[in-house]
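Lesson 9: reading folded outputs for more than one chain in a single document. The general rule is that every protein is listed as its sequence immediately followed by its structure tokens, and records are never interleaved. Here is the first one.
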Amino acid sequence: MRQNLGKYLLFLLLPLLLNASHRWELEVSKLDLVVGEATLLSYTCFFEGEAYGTSIDIEIPKEHDDYSIVMYKSRENIINDNRQNHFQYLIFAKHSGEIAVSLKAKLRKTSREQVENAVIGRDNVEYYQFEEVEDNLPLATLHVRAVSAALVGDFSLHVSMDKEELSSYEPLHVNITFEGLGNLDAYKAFELNIANVDIFREKPKRSYHVTPEGFKGSITQKFAIVSDKNFTIPAFSLEVYNPKTATKTTLKSKEKTFHVSAPFKKESLLDPIQDDDYRPFDWSWIYYLLTLTTGLMMGWYAHVYLIQYRSSTKNRNLTQVKDAKSLLVHLAIQGGYERLIAKAEKEQWSLKKIQKEQNIRT
């Protein structure tokens, strides 16, 4: 009973111990600002000791009527064995007047190790137990002035086109780049509408990151325009307010007119246009036919010549033999004279008779 009572007392005291062991401080980069201008809120939680097992979760509203909030960065330090947690948020005021920024944080302390250390093995803890404390963070009161420009910061506008002259149905590519530092997320994409042309649009590409003074980067829009008639690209313009110089400026591109040249006509071409059904006679196949015929004739003559050459060579060799036995040996080597050789040996033919019979068979 005393063991359980000690554990329960410890849980009851945890919120008081947590509140007593930490404190919050707030720094605001700018309290007086204009609508759309960024200000940086830096919250720091100072702990006594390392605050082992304590986590912090700051509740950030997804939507708020008075301001929008974006996380900039967070970090944790141990200084002189004392833990410090830093949280920085960017605030953009949505309207003029006095705006109060009031956030809350939840501190969650896990108690498993603490209970086990306090009650060394007396209770078998099967699950994690924790104690949660909610803090109201220091209040930030902002004084906001109204401006007529929706975009606030240091910005520039660039409009480029890839051609100066166009032919009929030749595409023209238009690039719009809006870049700088400020409330870039408030940028609204340009609408391009031109009569008697076809316009192809790409989704705006946003490339920026959070800085202590707002969003820094660029937004790019791309268009492709195709037409067979003259057309004019209107000027693109934006009003921006620069809080550093306290001036409002209109960023504006120049209007551009394109004179589209007519397409080529048949009579203006160097070569006459052939009808789809007309096909000129192709003489190249005759060349291939003559080449094939010549090759066949040369092959045939070479074959005849080779046969005649071999025959004359054989006859010339046979006329040079001196006796019947030598002639029979030559005939045996050449082949095809087996019967003649057998008969000549049986009847013992003379050289002249063998030559005569061999010429008749050849």
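And here is the second record, again sequence then tokens.
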Amino acid sequence: MKLFILRHKILFSILSIPVLLIGLLVGYEFSGQPIGWLAAQLDQLRGVHRIKIIGMADVTDEHYAKSLDDNYGVKADRLAYCTPSIWEFAFHKGYNAVAVPAIKKQFGEDVFAQCHELAILTKLKEPDLDEEVRKMLESNLQSLRERNKKQ
């Protein structure tokens, strides 16, 4: 009988380690959004205004971030480029769910649209800009202005 119990304890120990590791991995993957939400709440309490950006860098990103910072004191932090992990995406989603409405409430609804438009206009002023990029930016600017008129 003691041998039977001992064997089952060893079996339980051997099986519980992978189950525990899988549980920790799943917990880690899904902890991004609440951690992002909490980080944004703490930043709001400290009076720090930030947004989190993920995805491939755009030609206007540098000007957009500078415009947000110069005009409103909002920092734009890039978390990941082309392929964010599940955790990075969830963190970004949780953080911006708090930060974006707070920024809009403090500075006005069109803060991000204004800075995006300013970034495009700044980029269009560059003399050595490729013609295809120029056409794309002009199209984006037109779409942005039409979207702003509808709102």
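What the second record shows: The chain is about 75% helix and 10% strand.
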